[in-house]
Fold this sequence. Notes:
Blueprint: H1 2-32, H2 61-139, H3 145-179, H4 196-200, H5 204-239, E1 250-253, E2 261-265, E3 274-285, E4 290-296, E5 304-308, E6 312-317, E7 323-327, E8 339-346, E9 351-356, E10 359-364, E11 378-381, E12 411-420, H6 426-432, E13 453-457, E14 461-463
Antiparallel strand pairs: 1-12, 1-14, 2-11, 2-13, 3-8, 3-12, 4-5, 4-11, 5-6, 6-7, 8-9, 9-10
Helix pairs in contact: 2-3, 2-5, 3-5
Amino acid sequence: MFWWRLPQAVCVLSACVCLVLAYEDDIEINFADTYYNEITDGETPEPTPSSAPCSSPDLTKWDKIFSMLENSQMRENMLLQYADDIIKVEMGSLRGEMLRFVGQYGGTCGVAVETAGRRMALQVEGRLRETLERLKRDETLDVVGNSVGNFNHLEAMVQQLLSAARTQASRLSKMESSCFSSPGAGMPMNSKTGSRLAEGGMTGHQEQEVTSRELALDGVVAALQQTRVELGEVLRSSRQRYLPAGCEMALLFPMRSRRIYTSVIPDVPLSVSSFTVCMWVKPTTVSNKTVLFSYGNRRNPYEIQLLLGQTSALFTIGGEAHLVEARGVVKPGGASDWIHLCGAWSSEQGLASLWADGKKMASTPGVAEGHVLPDGGSLQLGQERNGCCPLSPGSGVQGFEGGFDPKLAFAGKMTGVNMWDRVLSEEEISQLALQEGQGCEQRGNVVAWGVTEMVPHGGAQFMN
Length: 464
């Protein structure tokens, strides 16, 4: 056993000896090498600095400044590019929203304005035709020579406005054909498929169409404003040929004559201590004293008088000694427009007031205080009884010696004549004086327009 393991032990020992000898040779070789930091005998060691692994040349002050400027310019360019991109995106989004809004609502508004303009043109034409027909009917009722010339003038004006209305209608049709005939123009947005502009954007041609529609709408507005002005003119000129306050008829006094007047037969006795008398008048011409409403008897022909002067209205109770005058009521010279007049008096207070167009123009105290109007007198419109002229057979009140003076006669139109046995309030008179109101529906309890018997004489006549 021992002899069998002896060769193995010899081999292991030999290997170890070889390894020790090799290591000693290495050490000797390494110690034999000379290094740069080796200190030898007799020599002064000189330090040798080692070079840095990454060396760079020193930068001057100007190099650093230029480097900072380059960095700053680079940052500025980046910020400007970023801001430009943001503005472009936001402006593009805003433009898209505005174009979608115009596409959605512009056409609809255009169609609505065009439809309204066409409807207005048709209404204007119909109104003008009706005005012309009524003017032609009124021609048969005019018996004064100058009224024929006025009718011809108004007829020519209405014909011109009728032609203008037709021109406006034709212009609207041309605008419609030129501005709203493109495909999809004026069509509202479909809620299911979305906006047309949102789907494919808006081309330059479509933008031009939107601009042309805006210009067309401006033209339509200008045309409608012109039509409105012309219509206002014809309404102002024709309004005076029709009756105010919803009245359906009027008394026509074609000229100043002693034979032309209208007698009124009240339903109740006229023995009152207070009253209010109102009427609408449109005089053709006035003198220093033009009689509208007059009541009197044999003893005093001037118990009540409502008169017109050159530019004023006058109201008397019991004679000219008790006079109330309102100046500036009538236009001086020629014919006037419709005027609403009211005279009110109370015996208890002795206060007389005169109203014109719903406004109190004059008021006088102490007028016939304590007086009571006598019954059995004569009431007439457009004239007054006095002692100047003999009575014509069968006219007036029996035993009332007096006639009519042509210098005092009224010429023109009269409507809405009413009389109450009390003093009306300010609000009631204001409502009666509304030209576009329904004042003729408020009738008096002493004299009621359209109910109380009124007998025209001479050339006076009722007209619708």
